[in-house]
Amino acid sequence: MRKNKSIRSLVRETELSTSDLIYPLFVVPGVEVKEEIPSMPDNYHFSLDLLLEEVAELVDLGIEGVLLFGIPKSKDEIGSRAWAKDGIVQQACRKIKDEFPELLVITDVCLCQYTSHGHCGIIEDGYVQNDATLDNLAKIALSHIEAGADMVAPSDMMDGRIQAIRTKLDQSGYQDKAIMAYSAKYASSFYGPFRDAAHSAPEEGDRSSYQMDPANSEEAMREISLDLKEGADIVMVKPALPYLDIIRRASDQFNAPLAAYNVSGEYAMIKAAAKEGWLDEEETALESLLSIKRAGAEIIITYWAKKVAKLIQ
């Protein structure tokens, strides 16, 4: 059953498809900006005027969804640019949906890129205030949906934010808009390149007080269960490769669509090793994503989406 490629393909248990993949995009202020992110080769910051060229290529490759991250021109203590009608993500949503109405547009809902201190919530007395942050997160989500987003993805890990967002959207007439919850988001060392890309590193301290301890597994199941009860439509495990056991447990335990985020550090390690000639980039990328799907993820958010889509084609 392994003798040649045709037989192996015939009995293959797991297949990658472009419909499995969501591609993250970083949108920045300015004009004619396409700047490669040093720690994430082949990924870029795009200004609004060049964003549609990138999106057109994704559509041609058969990629059906994008996840938008915005980097604002200015920041403040509460991250108020995150819910501004003329915010960078809001503008990007309108542009993309005007040109490519069938493309699934998902937006990151968080404050870290927008706050001057780099944390995901309001800070008082040196600590992130969970409950005080919820209303602002709901305002961000509503502003994205009003701008044309199909789905919001809260990544902040504040307790109760799914219920706050679901209530705000429902009360505003958006009962049909979906929420993809970063339900099991670990306080991981694998986020470094992303924080470089999103300009979102904390000014002081870290995010261990609201992101999950990498040692915990049962806690992840509780967090996923709570998000589903509060109204999440899709749940997510982040990162992916160091937490394949969590993906498998979530897949086995919950009858809900499951996403996994193949994060920047996972991407950057393969890129760095391939540059040195230690790994074959394409084969390693494919094997990595295949392992995530085999573990049980139905949706994979990955910086490999473009390359893998070309290989699949």
From TrEMBL:
SMART domains cross-referenced by the UniProt entry: ALAD (SM01004)
Instruction: Give a GO molecular function annotation for the protein.
Output: porphobilinogen synthase activity
Read off the CDD domains from this record: ALAD_PBGS
Metabolic or biological pathway: Porphyrin-containing compound metabolism; protoporphyrin-IX biosynthesis; coproporphyrinogen-III from 5-aminolevulinate: step 1/4
Q: What is its EC number?
A: 4.2.1.24
> For Mg(2+), which residues are the binding ones?
223
**Which residues are named in the active-site annotation?**
185, 238
Q: Which GO annotations describe the biological process of this protein? A: heme biosynthetic process
What stretches pass through the bilayer? none
Q: Name one GO cellular component term.
A: cytosol
> Which prosthetic group or cofactor does it need?
Zn(2+)
Stored PROSITE patterns: D_ALA_DEHYDRATASE
Residues noted as binding 5-aminolevulinate 2 in the record, renumbered to the chain: 264, 303
Q: Which domain of life is it from?
A: Bacteria
Q: Where does Zn(2+) bind?
A: 110, 112, 120
- Which keywords label this protein? Heme biosynthesis, Lyase, Magnesium, Metal-binding, Porphyrin biosynthesis, Zinc
Specify which residues bind 5-aminolevulinate 1 according to the UniProt entry for this protein. 195, 207
This enzyme catalyses: 2 5-aminolevulinate = porphobilinogen + 2 H2O + H(+)
Q: What is the protein's quaternary organization?
A: Homooctamer.
Protein task: Catalyzes an early step in the biosynthesis of tetrapyrroles. Binds two molecules of 5-aminolevulinate per subunit, each at a distinct site, and catalyzes their condensation to form porphobilinogen.
Q: Which family does it belong to?
A: Belongs to the ALAD family.
Q: Report what the protein is called.
A: Delta-aminolevulinic acid dehydratase
Q: State the species of origin.
A: Halanaerobacter jeridensis
